[in-house]
Amino acid sequence: MLPLVLDDLVAGYGAAPVLNGLTLEIGARERVGLFGPNGHGKTTLLRAISGLIAPSRGSIRLFDKPISGMSPAAIVAEGLIHVPQSNLLFPEMEVLETLRLAAHSARARQTTAASLEGVLTLFPRLAERRSQKIKTLSGGERQMVAIGVGLMGAPRLLALDEPTLGLSPKLKDELCVAIGDIAKSGLPLLLVEQDVEFLLELTDRLVMVTHGRCGVELDARQGIDHATIMALYFGEGHAA
């Protein structure tokens, strides 16, 4: 029983499809990184699997259960947690109440205390700022809260959309360590990032998304050099 299976997925906005028959599988305990040019379907893929947009064709199965057509809340309750770009948090809420509020599904409420302890251990900075309002936090700290919110939902599969977007190198390193710790727990992970080196540190397999389909796959354990990345993005003529 695989955590996630996407088959011949077509989805987009209005009459314009962005995903064009995309097929992807994530194995048990597997960490998969998605990369590729902007506008080719990475974020749309995450929105489709989390129920934010409805596919016009194809199927989505979470641990062998069809979830296409389910509401976002129902998909969260099933354990697929999507942490989107540009953390969408309530600025007037405090860190601790934000995290507690995130454990809203019946399944997540059963593990609220353990999940909260885990998040504050993973992000000690949030433990120090537990009583601060979200609007007073730095961009990196808000991203930590956003990932913490995802973890409070008791995920069976966690999807992160460009978690390091706009962060300083120091904060990127901190998040890399934290996401690495999440991955070591065995939680299946789907990670979208433009920084391929970041993906190489955190994933087992990299999949390039182009023109709404999954294309080239790379074994992250074998590494990848800059010339190869340039060739994948822009064609062989840019490999030098």
Descriptive account of the structure:
By secondary structure, the protein is of the alpha/beta class. The chain has two domains: 1-79 and 156-240, P-loop containing nucleotide triphosphate hydrolases (Rossmann fold, 3-Layer(aba) Sandwich), CATH 3.40.50.300; 88-155, no CATH class. It contains ten helices and ten strands. It has helices at 42-49, 72-78, 95-102, 106-109, 112-122, 124-128, 139-152, 169-184, 196-202, 226-234, and strands at residues 4-13, 16-26, 31-35, 57-62, 65-66, 80-83, 157-161, 189-192, 205-210, 213-219. The strands form two sheets. The chain has a six-stranded mixed sheet, sandwiched between helices. Strands 2-1-4-5 form a four-stranded antiparallel sheet, covered by helices on one side. A hairpin with a 2-residue loop joins strand 4 and strand 5. Helix 3 runs parallel beside helix 7 (139-152). It is globular and about 50 Å long. The N and C termini lie far apart (43 Å). The model has no long low-confidence stretch (mean pLDDT 91).
Question: What is the gist of this entry?
Answer:
This protein has 240 residues and is an alpha/beta fold.
- Report the top-level CATH class of the largest domain: Alpha Beta
> What is the count of DSSP helices, taking H or I runs of 4+ residues?
10
Question: Secondary-structure element sequence?
Answer: EEEHEEHEHHHHHEHEHEEH
The total of beta strands comes to: 10
The CATH architecture of the largest domain is 3-Layer(aba) Sandwich
Task: Return the CATH topology of the largest domain.
Answer: Rossmann fold
Which spans have pLDDT < 50 for at least 5 consecutive residues? none
Number of domains: 2
**Classification by helices and strands:** alpha/beta
Termini separation: 43 Å
Main beta-sheet strand count, sense and barrel state: 6 strands, mixed
Evaluate the radius of gyration: 18 Å
